[in-house]
Write a structure and sequence with these properties.
The complex is a heterodimer of chains A (646) and B (205).
Chain A lengths: L11 E5 H11 L4 E4 L7 H13 L2 E4 L3 H13 L4 E6 H17 L6 E7 L14 H6 L3 E2 L4 H18 L3 E6 H4 L2 E5 L15 E2 L6 E2 L6 H20 L5 E3 L6 E6 L1 H12 L6 E6 L1 E3 L3 H8 L4 E5 L5 H11 L9 E3 L14 H11 L9 H9 L17 H16 L4 E3 L17 E3 L5 H9 L11 E6 H17 L4 E7 L28 H8 L2 E5 L4 H13 L4 E7 L3 H7 L4 E5 L14 H6 L4 E4 L4 E4 L19 E5 L2
Parallel strand pairs in A: 2-3, 2-4, 4-5, 5-7, 6-7, 12-13, 12-15, 15-16, 17-18, 17-19, 19-20, 20-22, 21-22
Antiparallel strand pairs in A: 1-8, 6-14, 9-10, 11-13, 23-26, 24-25
Chain B lengths: L8 E8 L4 H14 L3 E6 L9 E9 L15 E4 L2 H11 L5 E4 L7 H6 L6 H10 L3 E4 L2 H8 L5 H12 L6 H11 L4 H18 L1
Parallel strand pairs in B: 1-4, 4-5, 5-6
Antiparallel strand pairs in B: 1-3, 2-3
Helix pairs in contact in B: 1-7, 2-4, 5-6, 5-8, 6-8, 7-8
Classes of the chains: A alpha/beta (646), B alpha/beta (205).
Chain lengths: 646, 205
């Protein structure tokens, strides 16, 4: 991680997009930042947290996105520039608050929301595009086209936010937020933050007033008047630019990641003299005059966008209102199937879209090489399934859950949630998870399943959640379950961190984002206070964990909780040496003749265990194995042994 | 900063989650940016710590900022941290001129392990890789790193190998400066690994 607050104005650095945004926030002189982690947005707050004390700003990982944005808004209300960050799923969580702050307006200092979208859902349970929220809720929205803009747009956006008194959104996508590129650093100002909540002067009202969203219809009108003024401002923004010939054969209109991809594609096709690119950085309100003048450059217009055809929709809608005398364009994009509204945008997708409109030939590899490509045997490059890390406590937890459900014998199942343990949908968790939606959904679903006994439902239901997820969105579901006598078992996989997104702290951990001692909120105390039976076990103690699980799921009534507590292996290994020396006795391993169906390499499937086809026995890959010791309890022949390291 | 014979230079780093793929591109990228180049890095992630295929795209330019993804068939260099992953990347991004630097140490996918077909025959796999590369340097990086006492040093050995090929315009001094900046607690071991990697390629040259 680079030092995002390095005092080297004018120097060039290699920053990940999120770090560039965080640097931009420092250069904008923010005083407050709050977020809930989520790929691809997590490094914004993570990198600010590292410099928070030194720069005298407040940074927190909030319990969830809704609290994050409300906390951030309070700072703005009290006159502190404030930043809130989240991934697109988080945007769904905060929509209700957004719909009112857009009416109430902000405080005297700016409020910027940074949303990271994850096209292709590399690390997400959905693939939504955040941009339409700008049009839907009347919020100004910008989108950086490269790394420098990811930094520079932040001070720009605070300027807009404060000049017009509105929250603003910066949308980025994985290939901007989570890619790395050159950044030329600017100055970080020294700001004396002074917070005070006073009678607030609302430019829409003649008198000092409260910050409020009512009367809503009046304030809705006022927000539209603000948007008209912001539109004027955006018309001349340098974040919108046209490059290319004056009369191109094809005009590309793009934003975000599409800007660099479009340039790469035009470059690869050697079509610089035939194609012009209008790159928009300020997307909403749409700079209509600029768009209109560019539409007159070419008959053919191709929209290049990542995920939804947002610009395609708003620009075609706008153009449909031109007077009948205006020249009409031929529009290409998602609606003509030249581009998809799902999956990731790539340079190849742009090349394909362009060659689908213009007659340009493209063949990056010669025919002889293509023959070799086609001749690569598929079995040499079969997919690698994702799995838990070697030594991950989740593998042991799901092993215990699997065995307990099998022993119970009533076809019980797991409702899943969002985290590394989502992989329990597949072989990593022995296919135990049978539902997978958004954060918190597994426990809500378990509430419903747990009421169906009156309709003959007799399957045990186990909701498996992570520790950070528990605090984020499970507590209301547990309250509901206990209150209404729903029958289910909640399993909290407590590995002591928000592991999937990079080990951020949560309300159960010892330290805050800024590294200060936190008031640790005990999950067992919460669960007990709600009235649930709570059992705590160490998943590496497979026998006891399985027995506890069986006992819980066989208890007839009510919501019960098992906390499976064991530190994330990636956190542990940074602090401690490996606990065991693992060995496999080749005389004891009977291989295919054992009758165990190679339990260790076919079912347990830890990457640290490999099958030696020559010897016909299992081996330990000493480079991969983290020597956790669990597999010693899996082998029925006792061939795998662990020896404690002194 | 020198003008590049081909601009941009496209490098794909291929490996498996947990190997240190991101670290490799960061060492190269930081060095190049400080030498005045434009660098863009795109990573596969999500799979990054969980045994999945992982690759990073690294584009180096003396002229401008490029996008973080390399178009199909347009890699100039493949830095292979794992043989199956190297072949996978060559199939998508290789071409008649691509040069490959490869660590032949396999990482067994759990599904190969379970399915019984097992990991592909290594000799055949390396033949495929060589057949799809204009030139291939096979560098026993993990083996050498284990001799140095830490298998993770395989990454720095591969970086040493790459710079010794002369395919990227990075000097040994510049990498050593990056090592001092990025790994202040492990300067000596990393520089040693770097030199091992350079030596292994110089023998092949």
């Amino acid at each position: 991680m680079p030092n995002i607050d390095m005092d080297a104005p004018g120097s060039n650095q290699l920053f990940i997009g999120n770090e560039a945004m965080a640097r931009g926030a420092l250069e904008a002189g923010i005083g407050f930042a709050s977020a809930y982690p989520g790929t691809p947005s997590s490094e914004i707050l993570g990198s600010l947290a590292e410099v928070a004390k030194k720069r005298d700003i407040y940074v927190e990982w909030s319990v969830n996105e809704k609290v994050a944005i409300e906390a951030g808004a309070a700072a703005s209300f009290a006159g502190i520039r404030s930043l809130v960050a989240m991934k697109m799923n988080g945007l769904n969580v905060v929509i209700d608050f957004l719909s009112t702050i857009v009416l109430s307006g902000i405080g005297k200092k700016g409020l910027v929301l940074m949303v990271g979208d994850d096209p292709a859902a590399h690390s997400s349970s959905n693939e939504t595009d955040s941009r339409p929220v700008s049009k839907w809720l009347d919020i100004p929205l910008v989108e950086p086209g490269d790394f420098q803009e990811a930094k520079d747009m932040i001070p720009f956006l605070y300027g807009i936010s404060e000049e017009f008194g509105t929250i603003c959104i910066l949308r980025s996508v994985t290939r901007v937020a989570h890619a790395r590129g050159n950044i030329r650093l600017g100055e970080i100002p020294k700001v004396e933050h002074k917070a005070r909540f006073e009678n607030y002067f609302d430019p829409a009202a003649p008198m000092p007033t409260s910050i409020m969203c009512v009367p809503s219809s009046f304030r809705h009108m006022f927000q539209h008047m603000r948007l008209d003024k912001i539109r004027e401002k955006f018309e001349s923004s340098t974040y919108n630019k046209y490059v290319g010939p004056e009369k191109p054969d094809l005009l590309i209109i793009t934003s975000g990641s599409g800007w660099l991809y479009s340039q790469d594609a035009v470059n690869a096709l050697k079509a610089e003299n035939r194609i012009g690119i209008l790159k928009l950085g300020t997307l909403w309100p749409l700079p209509e005059k600029l768009v209109k003048s560019c539409l007159s450059k070419s008959d053919k217009v191709l929209f290049i966008e990542e995920t939804d055809p947002f610009l395609e929709g708003v620009i075609m809608e706008y153009a449909a209102g031109f007077s009948p005398e205006s020249k009409r364009n031929l529009f290409y994009g998602n609606h003509t199937r030249h581009l998809s509204s799902f999956g990731e945008l790539t340079p190849d997708a742009v090349i394909k879209a362009i060659t689908g409109v213009l007659d340009i030939k493209y063949a990056p590899r010669d025919a002889e090489y293509m023959k070799k490509v086609e001749a690569v045997p598929q079995q040499y490059i079969m997919d690698r399934l994702l799995t838990f890390c070697p030594g991950c406590p989740h593998r042991a937890s799901f092993w215990a859950i699997k065995d307990a459900l099998a022993m119970d014998g009533r076809h019980g199942f797991v409702t899943g949630d969002i985290g590394c343990y989502s992989m329990a949908l597949g072989p990593a968790g022995f296919f135990q998870t049978r539902t997978h939606q958004c954060m918190g959904a597994g426990a809500g679903l378990a509430n419903g399943f747990g009421q169906l006994h009156r309709f003959g439902f007799d399957q045990p239901v186990v909701s498996v959640v992570g520790d950070s997820t528990f605090y984020h969105s499970i507590i209301p579901a547990l309250v509901n379950g206990v209150h209404n006598h729903s029958d289910f078992t909640l399993v909290i996989l407590d590995n002591g961190a928000t592991a999937m997104t990079g080990f951020q702290p949560h309300p159960g951990t010892e330290l805050t984002a800024m590294g200060e001692p936190a008031a640790q909120i005990s999950m067992e105390n919460i669960c007990r206070a709600i009235g649930a039976r709570v059992e705590i076990c160490d998943p590496f103690d497979l026998k006891n964990t399985t027995r506890t699980m069986l006992d819980l799921i066989e208890q007839k009534e009510g919501a019960k909780v098992a906390i499976m507590r064991r530190t994330c292996e990636l956190v542990r290994q940074k602090k401690e040496e490996k606990p065991y020396k693992m060995k496999i006795d080749p005389d004891k391993c009977l291989g295919e003749d054992c009758g165990c169906n190679r339990l260790c390499t076919r079912v347990f499937r830890c990457p640290g265990l490999i099958w030696d086809p020559v010897l016909g026995k299992t081996r330990i890959d000493e480079v991969i194995c983290n020597e956790c010791g669990v597999c010693a309890d899996i082998c029925p022949e006792g061939a795998i042994t662990r020896e404690a390291v002194a | 900063m020198n003008k590049l014979a081909k601009d941009p230079v496209n490098v794909v780093v291929a490996g498996v989650g947990g190997q240190g793929n991101v670290m490799v591109t960061l060492v190269l990228g930081n060095t190049l940016v400080h030498d005045g180049y434009f660098v863009t890095i795109g990573e596969t992630y999500g799979a990054s710590q969980r045994g999945g295929s992982v690759m990073s795209h690294l584009k180096i330019s003396a002229e401008k900022q490029f996008s973080p993804l390399i178009p199909e068939g347009q890699a100039d260099i493949v830095l292979g941290m794992e043989p199956v992953e190297t072949l996978r990347v060559l199939k998508s991004f290789g071409n008649q001129n691509v040069v490959t630097v490869l660590n032949p140490r396999p990482i067994h996918p759990v599904d190969f392990t379970g399915s019984g077909s097992g990991y592909p025959n290594m000799e055949e796999l390396l033949e495929q890789v060589k057949g799809m590369s204009a030139k291939t340097y096979v560098v026993a990086a993990t083996e050498e790193a284990q001799k140095l006492g830490n298998p993770m040093l395989a990454n720095m050995i591969l970086i040493g190998s790459l710079i010794q090929t002369g395919l990227v315009t990075i000097s040994q001094e510049a990498i050593e400066k990056t090592i001092r900046d990025m790994f202040p607690k492990a300067v000596a071991s990393n520089i040693k690994a770097l030199k091992v990697g350079m030596r292994l390629v110089s023998i092949l040259q």
